[in-house]
């Protein structure tokens, strides 16, 4: 999902703390701390990233920590992530080692909803 060579993206670095809502018309990589709601095209929360707030995006890949609701077309919960909050999405992929506390609701078009868990 995340391409480091992509030219049209924004980065919240590991040493940065943002207190407030973010709106981005490109992809967003978060390695630092964000306390506020996020709206973007594609979101990647890296291992050192932490978000306290709601997320709205076309795609969301979480490797760090999120506390809040995620509304996204596609959600990936990566090994090592922690998510405390609800998910509303068409697709959900969850790796072994991902920690998730909350509920999952398919988007309004339930016929497109998919759930994939990592094979045991």
How would you describe what is shown here?
The protein has 120 residues and is mostly beta strands. It has one domain. Helix content is 0%, strand content 56%. The chain is built from no helices and 15 strands. It has strands at 9-12, 17-19, 22-23, 27-30, 33-35, 38-45, 50-52, 55-62, 65-67, 70-77, 82-84, 87-94, 99-101, 104-106, 114-117. The strands form two sheets. Strands 1, 3, 4, 6, 8, 10, 12, 14 and 15 form a nine-stranded parallel β-sheet that branches. Strands 2-5-7-9-11-13 form a six-stranded parallel β-sheet, with no helix packed on it. The radius of gyration is 13 Å and the shape is globular. The model has no long low-confidence stretch (mean pLDDT 88).
């Amino acid at each position: 999902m995340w391409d480091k060579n992509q030219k049209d993206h924004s980065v919240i670095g590991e040493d940065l703390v943002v207190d407030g809502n973010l709106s981005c018309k490109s992809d967003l990589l978060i390695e630092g701390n964000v306390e506020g709601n996020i709206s973007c095209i594609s979101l990647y929360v890296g291992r050192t990233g932490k978000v306290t707030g709601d997320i709205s995006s076309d795609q969301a890949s979480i490797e760090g920590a999120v506390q809040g609701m995620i509304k996204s077309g596609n959600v990936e919960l990566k090994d090592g992530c922690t998510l405390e909050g609800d998910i509303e999405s068409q697709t959900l992929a969850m790796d072994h080692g991902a920690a998730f506390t909350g509920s999952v609701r398919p988007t309004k078009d339930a016929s497109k909803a998919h759930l994939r868990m990592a094979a045991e």
